[in-house]
Amino acid sequence: MQVAHNLIMISNRLPATVEPSAEGMQLKPSSGGLVTALRPVLASQKGAWIGSFDANSGMAEALLELSAGSARADDTCDMIGIPLTSAEQHGFYAGFSNEIVWPLFHDLQSRCNFDPTYWKAYTSVNHKFATTIAHTAQSGSRIWVHDYHLMLTGKFLREMGLHHRMGFFLHIPFPPLDIFEKLPWRSQILRALFQFNVIGFQTPRDQRNFVGCVRRLLPEMELQRVEDEVYSSDGEHASLIRVFPIGIDYNEFARAAEQPPVLQRAELVRRDMHGQQIVLGVDRLDYTKGIPERLKAFRHLLTTHPEVHRKISLVQIVVPSREQIPKYRELKLEIETLISQINGTFSDSGWTPVHYIHRSLSRTELLALYRTADIALITPLKDGMNLVAKEFCAAQVECRGMLVLSEFAGAAAQMRGGAILVNPYDIEGVAEAVLRAFETGPKERRKRMLRLRRNVRKADVFHWCQDFCNCLDGVGAA
Ligand code: ADQ
To answer: For the domain 250-458, what is the CATH code?
Structure first.
């Protein structure tokens, strides 16, 4: 018998990887922005999660064992996997999603590869997702589709006759008209999005950009703004276009940052840094995160302010990501060349200006760094939200750290009160901001961090999810 699911989440990837163990194949919960945010929410509801997996990964076996009760995952939701072949992953994921939509939506159109075969793969994989969703959904299920990989699923679901309440949330930015209109499939994508009852964005900037594109590219669409909400109708379907800034599980981060293993690890980090201020960068390996620009700013600081030598070090964590794509391999090389150049020029006995870690950290290691850092330097060229900025604040239980944040991160809209905002392209400006943070005294640091923490606590991930689900419940189904 099919289980009734109240909430069906759909994302490109299932939030787990598979690993062999003594008891057979096991699902291991994966890390990453979306997964980190949603896991606690699904655990508290009768939910299902639909996502793809690599058909060659052994995941199929693990999913079978899971349904037979012999494999374990830490999630309490049912997982329904969609196997994707290498060709599908190439065209749909690496191709359309990450060589077209990802760079374009981050305003980096020169990095796009508008290969028409990618569109075919994107369409066919979105259809495949819709087929599985239609099979899983029962009367009363709410369907919540996540992110840029799956923008066409709503259209296919309506064509399959589904009248459920369906929402879509875009985790990445939505670009302005002059960039979006470069997309050869711009109208098809906009029209498909309007099959969702709720279309959610991270910031007012993204909502504004989306509405601007619709006004120009779909003039038949009626749009009406009521305060922060925009209602749309094409005579057949009505949608609500709204901002839902994603949050984190604040209490969990703050609590975990107080645990003995984190304190011990933090103590070790402090001891190794010999009283220097720690500037921390934590990013997935991605050209949107502004890592080379940040390194150049740090180099500029060391060049123009020799008085900070031996008193400050940058710890740059880079989480491996999308390494099958050549541009990402080139970026890694660029980062490593810059770091060795900086260390080659400025290192002195007992002082290494840049510490570089290229791997995924354990939660304890990450929290210890968040807790110990004197300055978090988060300078994406553009970012939907940036959860690292929020996690850093939640883990700053002693309120000693300063946040230097890109004005182009979605998080800047909520955190401008306590953070020092910078233009990540302005190398001198970023260097000056780091110096300003370095020189800020404990009283001002505390005041700013308390304000930031209040903000992050109030708009946490539960608030985000509840808000989205309430909106979905409030709108009329199709
Ligand atoms: P991402 O681009 O993945 O997410 P981000 O929001 O910064 O970016 O989240 C990264 C996540 O990875 C954080 O939760 C962090 O804890 C984790 N992480 C980072 N470094 C790590 C390390 N070394 N080891 C282990 N874990 C690490 C996308 C969008 C963002 C948006 C999120 C959520 O691109 O703009 O904020 O979705 O909507």
So the answer is: 3.40.50.2000
